Amino acid sequence: MTPAQVLYIGGWGRSGSTLLSHLLGGLDGMVSVGELRYVWQAGPAANELCGCGRSFADCPFWQAVGEEAFGGWERVDVAEVLQLEADVLRHRNIPLLAFPRLFPGHARKVDRYAELTARVYEAILAVSGARTVVDSTKNPPYAYFLRRAPGVGLRVLHLVRDSRGVVYSWMKKVERPEITGDAAFFEEFSPWKAGLRWMECNLAFDVLRLRTPTARMRYEALAAEPAGEVARAMRSLGEEIDATALAGGSVEVAGQHSVRGNPMRFAHGRQRVKADEAWRRDMARPVRRTVLALTWPLLWRYGYLRGRHV
Questions:
Q1: N or C: which end of the chain has fewer CB within 10 A?
Q2: Three-class DSSP category at 176
Q3: pLDDT tens-digit profile of 26-35?
Q4: Is 161 within the bounds of a domain?
Q5: How far is CA 157 from the centre of its chain?
Q6: What is the secondary structure of 214-267 as a DSSP string?
């Protein structure tokens, strides 16, 4: 059986992954589904809102996917899947995913979770008619897991953003609109914790590229020239695409069936593509210096300290 083709957006949160996934989802042959690693939590377990604005249980797309994959989501023990996720997808378990033969007990859990996950990806392709699933999960352990999942053909877009902009974003209080009934907010991070997590996640993808087809992309370059950056990245992954639809500097964000992600996925109509550079104006200098001290090695590696704006 041909593996389900997955284009995985990796990195850390607040780096523009929702924007990139919507850009890619508007291209022929690609279907963007948001952060699929959370489909069991957000869907059968919590019935959160899909990016189309309907609840998961009322979304025709996701119900068709469940029917195609399992004969209905209700035919799967959701509690079992959530426990598998908890056991498999932890940052500290990346070595276990990289060397499965050394940990046979853990490998059996990975195999079971891989079987379920591959069926979801295959069903998404069947229902959508697309060739490639765009998954914006970003999470490093999930990428390492997908690399060894037998039914998945993985390619990675490693999306990086200036650590100072990322940290500034994580320090803000942002509501989660997919949660209905009560107000819910994304987790907030201190500059220290956010800077260290930025380093950890990006280093994990720098290592993964040694064994998995990977293209690196900078958020700032993507916002400046969406069509050119997407075409360049896909070319480096061995695929020539027509990205002229992205040349207008705007993106259609309404109606995509996405699981979790930036609240922009609930906007309607075409939205202008523009880099969020508010941190340059509003970020306190002591905080900026702290983040720079924590993250300068990778900032230099990714080219952020070699230009005019540092």
A1: N
A2: coil
A3: 899 999 999 9
A4: yes
A5: 9
A6: EEEEEHHHHHH-HHHHHHHHHHHTT-----GGGTTSEEE-SS---BS--GGGG-
Helices marked H in 74-225: 78-88, 94-98, 104-128, 140-148, 163-170, 191-208, 219-224
The count of structural domains within the chain is 1
- Give pLDDT, residue 81: 97
Domain presence at residue 206: yes
Written as six digits, the tokens of 67 are 């029917």
Task: Report the CATH number at residue 240.
Answer: 3.40.50.300
Place of tokens 């540092």: 310
240 Cβ contact list (under 8 Å, min separation 6): 234
pLDDT digits (tens, 9 = 90+) for 96-141: 887 777 788 888 999 999 999 999 999 999 999 999 999 999 999 9
Residue 307 placed within a domain: no
pLDDT of residue 261: 85
Closest CA to 162 of 263, 306, 23: 306
Token pair 């990975």 in the structure block, residue: 110
Secondary structure letter of residue 3 according to DSSP? P
Write out residues in the chain with pLDDT < 70, as ranges.
Answer: 174, 177-185, 253-254, 307-310
- Kindly state whether residue 61 falls inside one of the protein's structural domains: yes
